[in-house]
Design brief:
Helices cover 0% and strands 59% of the residues. The chain is mainly β. The strands form 2 sheets. Strands 2, 4, 5, 6, 9, 10 and 11 form a 7-stranded mixed sheet that branches. Strands 1-3-8-7 form a 4-stranded antiparallel sheet, with no helix packed on it. It is elongated, with a radius of gyration of 14 Å.
Length: 121
């Protein structure tokens, strides 16, 4: 089946940068939207940034101007470049992709395992 593998999380100081990557693999027919969600301690999960197969982005206002989402359709990857990080960005970040598996006709949402991002003050 389809799986998403994330990498790039870690611990950084306020003002620093991190780059998260996510690769989709398995029985992939087509991928529509890909993106990143996060869940901070005591908070609900929220969309950080999404990107369509055509490159149109949807960015959370709280990270707009600091985070950039990109994708490589040929490699089935999506990236999140995070700059000017703040302690408020501390959360578990989850990769998400809407995928139509090969030999099926319906899209479904798939999730990565989550990667911890911690920003210290």
């Amino acid at each position: 089946q389809v799986q998403l593998v994330e990498s790039g999380g870690g611990l950084v100081q306020s003002g620093g940068s991190l780059r998260l990557s996510c690769a989709a693999s398995g029985s992939i027919g087509s991928i529509d939207t890909m993106g990143w969600y996060r869940q901070a301690l005591g908070k609900q999960r929220e969309l950080v940034a999404g990107i369509t197969s055509g490159g149109v982005t949807n960015i959370n206002d709280s990270v707009k101007g600091r985070f950039t989402v990109s994708r490589d359709n040929a490699k089935n990857t999506v990236n999140l470049q995070m700059s000017s990080l703040l302690p408020e960005d501390t959360a578990v970040y989850y990769c998400n992709a809407r995928v139509r598996p090969r030999f099926t006709s319906l899209y479904d949402d798939y999730w990565g395992q989550g990667t911890q991002v911690t920003v210290s003050s």
